[in-house]
Amino acid sequence: MNKERYPFEDIEAKWQNFWEGKEIFKTTSDKKKPKYYCLEMFPYPSGNIHMGHVRNYVIGDVVARFKRMCGYEVLHPMGWDAFGLPAENAALEKGIHPAKWTLQNIEYMKSQLKKIGLSYDWSREIATCSQDYYKWNQWLFLKFYEKGLVYKKEADVNWCEKCQTVLANEQVEDGLCWRCSSIVKSKKLEQWFFKITDYADRLLEEQKLLENWPQKVLTMQINWIGKSFGTEIDFRVEDSGEIIKVFTTRADTIFGATYVVLAPEYPLVEKFIKDSQDKDKINEFIAQHKIRGEMENIEKEGIFTGHYAINPVNNEKVPIWVANYVLMEYGTGAIMSVPAHDQRDFEFAIKYELPRRLVIQSKEETLSEDTMKEAFEDEGILVNSAQFDNMSSKEAIEAISLWMEKEGIGRRTINYRLKDWLVSRQRYWGTPIPIIYCSNCGKVPVLYKDLPIRLPEDVDIQKGQTLADILDFVNTNCPNCGNKAKRETDTMDTFVDSSWYFARYLSPKEENNPVALNEANYWLPVDQYIGGIEHAILHLLYARFFTKVMADLGLMEVKEPFKNLLTQGMVIKDGAKMSKSKGNVVDPNDIITKYGADTVRIFILFASPPEKDLEWSDQGVEGAWKFLNRVYRIVRQYAEKIRKIQMTDDRRQSIEDKKLHAFTHKTIKRVTEDIEQEFHFNTAIAAIMELVNEIYKYKFRDDEDSLLVLKEVLETVILLLSPMAPHLAEELWQVLGKKSSIFDNPWPRYDKEAIKEEEIIIPIQVNGKLRGRILTPVDCKEDEIKNLALKEVEDKIRDKQVKKVILVPKKLVNIVVG
User: Fold this and answer.
1) Which of 304, 620, 728, 736 has a 20 to 30 A CA-CA distance from 297?
2) How far apart are CA 66 and CA 72, in angstroms?
3) Sign, CA torsion 196/198/199/204
């Protein structure tokens, strides 16, 4: 056997140039073929592709190449999520304009992606910082505005007094400004919102269309939307006409409410402060906790306002506190605190020596508020609850709610955790919001014919300039009355860019609409979407929202953007996620330079199923490299001889020939099913490795029959390997004398006749008596055999209970029924 080394340096560059020059992966929209839209979440052009990117894109690339060979018209585009805060940070650090920094990064990262050998249709490339793209952000904003889905209201933001600027949450570090380390305060500013809450019920109900999404993602969205059926209760502030409305799903605990807690941002808090003797302390507390309010697992802290509310069911006076564990984003921003029956309230009450009152008694044991070590949060029997004593919790929730409605002190209602989407950003590098302010006409939408409202380039970020400082941008004329007016200087949240980009790929040059309707109706929904679990809520929820609104606007017909969703695991090294701070980053360029792109691809696909975390292994990379070299050598060894052989069915196969022929078709079946059903590329590659081992063990006779078997098996190996190691596959396909790209060839199909010898007959017994037989593959999994056996005799056990199913491997199945 020769020891020739696979020369990836020349081969990979050769085939990358070939694919680009011939536009092999350009989508033609051939409507005669079934369509397949494969998409990975597009990257932020930060300057470097990391291994997390590589894993995401390689997974998608295998799927796209496989589907192409299976006869689909494949759309596999790529673009750039190019607006956002990191570019402004880089501008400050490097003294370079965000536009220049971003475009430089796009060019470099694009070259990196091409080195990995990804089958993108680059003719559809988009960058969200391009006027051709963000014009349609503005167009959609205006359509949303016309539909009543956009409004402006006062909201709390993070404010740095020294820098005189609003800070994004990411720019607040331990309550301090990331730029000057000054204390960040909360400040009210007018902000723009999208009314995503109008679509809350549809976002929940239409999850039924997402059968092929991970359940954990669906659950996270359900929890984020947080639809709750409960009761809104009115607590009147003592000596005041003010009402504090609280929402609860446990109206049965109302008689146990011993204090009320408000979020630091709750509107009445400012009023309470004015009347308080502890004004400075409360102000200090609120300033601190408005910034910390969204931190998880924080220590619960609070302060008494000096005011009281009246519990409406018993007219008891209860103290009003402000605390950091209540957020304005949830419910009404106020809660009735029932420490005996809510663990957060229990811990807070213990810390601040507030009263606890037991109103739900356990059915299992007798509880006492004096001896309770934790809150009793389960349902039980009501006590200390006036006329509702001895009712079950379930009965009491309904009865108390109805009684409160009759008394005018509460009402049954539905509450959502989801709040409207704040899309204003007081940043430069983003889509300008297309609104004009006129002293005569008020807020005036920009005319569609005047789009795009261009982002001015003459901004000196080093001096802290924003859009508000560019007078040529700010000063304009009102499109209604022609008087002097001013432009909105906020830009849009970058999540707007990524909420519909998948639709722009379909017709990136379309000039009349953000997406051509015929293309949208043909290509959507995306058949396979691939990206990290960290986007489970915001990006995926916003994309679903945008799709529904765009459908309502007549821009597309689909209700959901992504039919199938794969959330790939992280890349881990030394037990931790790869990151610069941990010093465990592996640069893809280094590995590609040393081993080639196909080695990186094979390692990433082989090391772990895509949904699991991948542990980086230098030995694993070396193993992938050795495997590709084995394939390269065995094909090169026999290539000259088998090039001259024409395939025929007229063979005099030996036992060895038949064995290798059967193993070949068994491998086709395994690899096809592993890719098609579960994207288990690791087991698919393992099957190909086994087949390669069989080739090396095969005793070659140097006759026509032996060459025919080798021709079939070597061509099969190359075809099966092609989506995963495309450069090597193209080269070896050419080495075997093929003229066209391997990706213009169909995916191999297995011959059922050839693998029949791999099937066995298994008798089925019911309580020890023979009741049937099944034919299964030798390597059929235990659970599959049992399910086949149960199905075979289902008419004989229909009225009986299956107690046990016993499998004697390769011999029989015994079903025990009662």
Assistant:
1) 304
2) 9
3) positive
